[in-house]
Amino acid sequence: METIYFVIVVFLLSLAVFGLFVGVSNDAVNFLQSAVGARAAKFRTVLIYASLGVLLGAVMSTGMMDVARHGILTPVHYSFFEVMTIFFAVMVANVIILDMFNSVGMPTSSTISLVFGLLGASFSIATLKTIVNPSLDYNMLLNSGQALSMIIAIFVSVAFAFVFGWLIMWISRMVFSFNYKKYSRYSIAIFGGIAFTALSYFIFLKGVGNSPYMDAGIRTWINGNIQLLLLITFGCSTVFMEILHLFKVNIFRVIVLMGTFALAMAFAGNDLVNFIGVPLSGLDSYQDYVAHANGAAPNAFMMSSLMENAKTSPLYLLIAGVIMVVAMVTSKKAQNVIKTSVDLSRQDGGDEMFGSSSAARAIVRFFQTTNKQISAIIPANIKHWIDSRFDKNGIILEDETAAFDLVRAAVTLVISSMLITIGTNYKLPLSTTYVTFMVAMGSSLADRAWSRESAVFRVTGVISVIGGWFITAGASFLLAAVICLVMYYGGIVANIAFIVVVIASLIRSSRKYKEKKASENRDKDVFRLMMRTRDPQLVWEMLQKQVRRTQSDCCKFALEQFNLIIDGLENEKTSSLRKAQRDLVAAKQPLKKVRRQEMLVLQRVPRMIAIERNTWFHLGMNSNQQLIYGLRRMLEPIKEHVDNSFNPLSPELIADFLPIKRSINELMKASCAQIETGRYENYRQILAEADNVKDELSILRKRQIDRMQDSETNSQMQVNLLYLNVLQESQQLLSNMRHQLRAAKKFME
């Protein structure tokens, strides 16, 4: 029996390692997004500062492992078997949920995943125990009071962080404006002193000050003289910042890098329990059972030892810190999650990765109305002065690809660290993910980064992310509870099955993520470069290349799907038809996204060119969409026909259509090539040949109708009608191809 639990413990520790990779992929956004979004330094430099913070925070961990040991459940009432079942179920549920969110690039909270996972698994076992033993109740089995306080604090911090982020950013922009170098002569030192003091307080309170390695006497002295220390730190740091400013050092860059270090340290020190707390608690439980069970059965040995405070080995913490650093440096998923938060905070009206929603539209409309009412009572001269402070014409960015400036990055980091410090003082376990994300959203709103053109999309993004957090809570609770019950009754077989399921799901998730990113990487920087380029003529040249590529890709895609559909019909291959259906459905959103991107860029080209080419741009994009919609109309009846195993196409019909299929392939390949190269020497010839093929399709259609009228039986009516639809949609495909080619040529002229 011990061997079985040894295997479970080893797998738990393996999941801990993977959990560190997955968790860092998700939570790296907390301390990297500000520095990365503002381009405060090279990405490698930012990672170095964050890595040092992670290592120090891990080694100086404050013993938060007690949350996993007895923060949610009361282990004295649970047996070794029950505790191990709970821990195993929580880890399986957490890894699956966090990896799923990371794969779609949505930030979520590992704290919520842990708390609700433990609560769900413990609740399921507690329910079974109360049924068997009525003398037990939930208050005895669950630490419900502490769990409730953690949950309330986490969710209340959402509004708190958003409001403070908005307010402080608005005040900061009033002081510095977007041209911060012009207005920072006397204010920068004071701002730097406040920021340095707040971050120093954050580092020492959250990290070194609560470290078990610090002498108790020194800790007591610091706590007793904290106000004096803060005053001295503020005075000295203000003078130091003024000296740095005189030597032309960018104070905001210093603050951003220091804030990155501080938040990384806090993340490692406080969130480490989310990743290794449960596996280490399982290891402690196993060691206690082996040492003290004396032959007792696993379901008879009670886990009173978990009521003691955790004594985590510094070696374990150091190893965990190193793993987190490696994960942060190498994880592509971490970069994807950072991109989500940076995109939602972005200063310019760029690539909106979220769509619109009715809730977002209602919220935006309400605040627009409120803003008009408030604006009506503010004197015109005051409004003019406020607007001048938000004039983006003089914005100072570190490079052309920066999403926002260093002022916002510094404010976001300082406010995040101060709020987490306040939460620590009041013993509120605030989620670093919640605080940093909502501060970033509040600061971007105050910075007028959410224009009328982008507000609905970004509010939708915030709602989606917050909704993701709530989904995490519910999913973690339910999934952990169900898995725990299955393991409880399924025994060894269920445990082995879940091990296989976890490994298989992680391999599949990793493969799908790589495929998804491979298709996105090509366009990641091109659009941002076009939006940042200041020369309208250069923007026009880049847009021409981009539109040419979009049109040619769509043309090639349409031809590929046409061949898949016809192949599926002729050979009754449901696999080809299903693939075509998946591909055509998946193509809809990227096409809408590209259209919006290119429309935004079109506004930045020379005005006369934009006016002249606007019509042809939209006609071309409409042709792209019609190509996709036409193929979907062709596919739907074909797929239903083949799925139901109805009569196949006769060899005669297949032979009639074969020359048409070849002609369509030749024409579309020629059209795609001309669009791709921008050379339209055979433009008229392609249009003429397309008309000829359409005429041939009309002849085939007339011939098929005559056959149907001459037929004495209706047994082939279904397939004959289907064939007529194929002929009709093939004609429409050629019409859409002609429109696309014509629009592409006119747009490029």
UniProtKB/TrEMBL annotation:
PANTHER family: PHOSPHATE TRANSPORTER. It comes from Segatella bryantii (Prevotella bryantii). GO terms for cellular component: membrane. Keywords: Membrane, Phosphate transport, Transmembrane, Transmembrane helix, Transport. GO terms for molecular function: phosphate transmembrane transporter activity. The keyword Transmembrane helix applies. It comes from the Bacteria. InterPro entries: Phos_transporter. It is found in: Membrane. The chain crosses the membrane at residues 6-25, 46-65, 77-98, 110-128, 148-171, 183-204, 224-244, 251-269, 313-331, 455-480, 486-507. The lineage of its organism: Bacteria, Pseudomonadati, Bacteroidota, Bacteroidia, Bacteroidales. Pfam families: PHO4. It is a multi-pass membrane protein. Belongs to the inorganic phosphate transporter (PiT) (TC 2.A.20) family. Its main location: membrane. The keyword Transmembrane helix applies. This is Phosphate transporter. One of its GO terms (biological process) is phosphate ion transmembrane transport.
